[in-house]
Amino acid sequence: MAVTPLQDLRPSNGVKRKDMKKRVRKKILYPPLFLLFFATWAGSLVFPGVSGAIKLPVLENAGACMACHASKDLVISFKDKEKMSVFVSPDDFIKTVHSALSCTDCHQKVSLESHPGRVLESRSAFAKEASGACRNCHADSQLKAKANHAYMAEKADAPLCAVCHGAHNVRRISEWKSSLRGKEYCLTCHRQSISKTLRSGERLSLLIDPANLASSVHNKHDCSDCHAEYNRDSHPVKTFFDSREHSVSVSEICGKCHADKYTSLRGSIHYNLSFHVGGTLVSKGNPKAPVCTDCHGFHAVGPKTTYETLSGVPCRKCHEDIFNIYAASVHGMSRAKGEHRAPMCSSCHFAHEIKFTAMTDKIKAACLGCHKGVEGEHKKWLPNAELHLSVIACAACHAPASEKGIYLQLVDQKTGEPFTREQILPLLGTSSEELSRRLNAHGQGLDSYELSYILKQLNERGAGARVTYLGRMDVNKYSEAHRLSLKKNAISECESCHRKDSKFLKRVTLAIIKTEGGMERYTLQPDVLSSVFSMLSSRQFYLLGGTRIALLDWAGIFIVFCGLLLPIAHVTMRVLTAPLRKKGKSEGSEKGEKG
Amino acid sequence: MNKIFLHPLLVRIWHWVNAVGFIVLIITGIQIRYREIANFGTFKAAVEIHNFFGFVVILDFLLWLAYYVLTGKIRMYVPLNLKKFLKGALKQARYYGYGLFIGEENPHHATADNKFNPLQQAAYFMIMLLLMPLQLISGVLLWDIKAFADWIGLLGGLKVVDMVHVAVFFFLAAFFFVHVYLTTLGTTPLEHIKAMFTGYEELEEHPK
Question: In whole angstroms, what is the distance from residue A429 CA to residue A435 CA?
């Protein structure tokens, strides 16, 4: 059984201070003290030179103290009104390493004349003063004999001796610590409120709540199962720059057992992807990219179900804005109502192998994974349903309040695979930075001609690959994809998109996929969808009524106008020349009559 | 007045089905392409009607093609003798541009096997054997661009196929006005139209 610090100093109701004082002086203290004095004097006569060295068991030399402190009802009050039991168990004390000490060896400020005269500020002040007595016998060299003890002892805010070692139940370390099994050995110190200062100045708590450990899925493991370098014989002192470095280091440990998860994590967006601006990887030191402990904690690792609740899902720690949108969505609200089939973050994004999803079919696959038969449902009412489902993200319609736009993506026509930035750069003979500058040339985005010129260059130098732009509709912000609504609210009016003035066609983006995942976005001028040059650039993107080419329309108006003008002109001529024909007829009639 | 049998029943059925189909396709085509301007109904209805009548016109065209090929009458659409055709076309153009106004006789006399004057022959050759197949094929490709993605790719991409479909639509819409006008150039303004119902056309008697 573990020993709780200051366990023997529990406050309780009991004898009043004045009564106790009187009793101590008149009836209890004086006679035994006299005897004690006499015995000491006699001893000094029998064993000259060892005066004061003779230590009798406390029960024999502290009868005066124990006359009161053996009472379980004895309590003292502090100025802060807190009460504390001052009961000292004779049975326990006699077993301690200090059993030969007298009370005043430690409690040197206790005066029989005044005891218990002083009233201390608080329990902690009392504990501090009491622990200070340890230093009377235990020299610095002893305290610093072990590196970790030295580290703790040197700290200004080091735990008091009694916190770890107890007060009146102090036993030799060798007597009890070696008998501790598993976690209890480590928890001797780590259940205390200890911490260390990292190089950055940050404080790292080393406190481990035994209750957390007990409720963890790892509660059957010993500390050294994870902290392999630490055992009874070895306790290296590790230093870290900051808590982030500590977390990354600790998370490496998880991979020892959870190799599959760890491998998935290494291929995930959290670990490997760099975002378009500013973002970097865990592997590149992005302090915001999560490692194992950021989601699972250190010692309170819960079962899988812990992370599948609205309150427990760890994603919200970093993605709170998205989580709030999700929570207000049809999925989030269903989940809140107890519908466990409603998806959580990991249902669509997975827990560890989180991939970049924009411009991919991954999320759509997740949607269709639950919404079985949804393709058939769309076919019942949506013309070209299969086409719509392949080029429009589910959220574009099912998050009706979201802002949407058209994304053009370079793809290899032969394989249908995205043509990545890493493939583009050598073909254009440019660097990543130069390409970004070129694609942002005017600040307003490339126009159709410039876009087609890039395509031309790629295809001229493409070594057989035929590159083209493919278009699809998606939400403009990742977070908007979570704003899913009820089916009845989904956009189902064709006119929302199939018209020249559709607001969804106003924002056109060039999406360049990166080999390691992720995407760079470059704004394009909206005319890339409908200018004459779009015949060359976005020849594979065509939206009925929405991407019509203005020049073709004007040519059409001219053609139809000519078709209309011809009959009108001819009729006009017929009307104007009618007298001629009448005259011809009458002349013909006259000729016939003469003939 | 002499009556001449010009239009067999099958041709008349084809013609009127085609006529109705054309009108519906033109209206719904405008609705689909210019939704923000033309609002005859919902976009979805326009697409569905356009698709339906598109296939009606395709079947009708196949009926026409089968009839004319199997009977050999397809020859009346094809100017086999180029010299004769050019000579006749000039003569006919002169008639429409001058002779008609001064009361000259139409140089072409329609028969059941030779209904078209050289200009009509050229126009219908272009329309029936070039524009219509182009329009019908591009229409089918656009009807299901996912299923016909490979064919569309071969033809130069979606925008090219769409451009062809729309351009032919403009030509056919323009010709529609000309065609309707030409029907009024019979012996009476309604004579040609009447003939397309009855099959018989009354010919004006000319002094020998």
Answer: 9
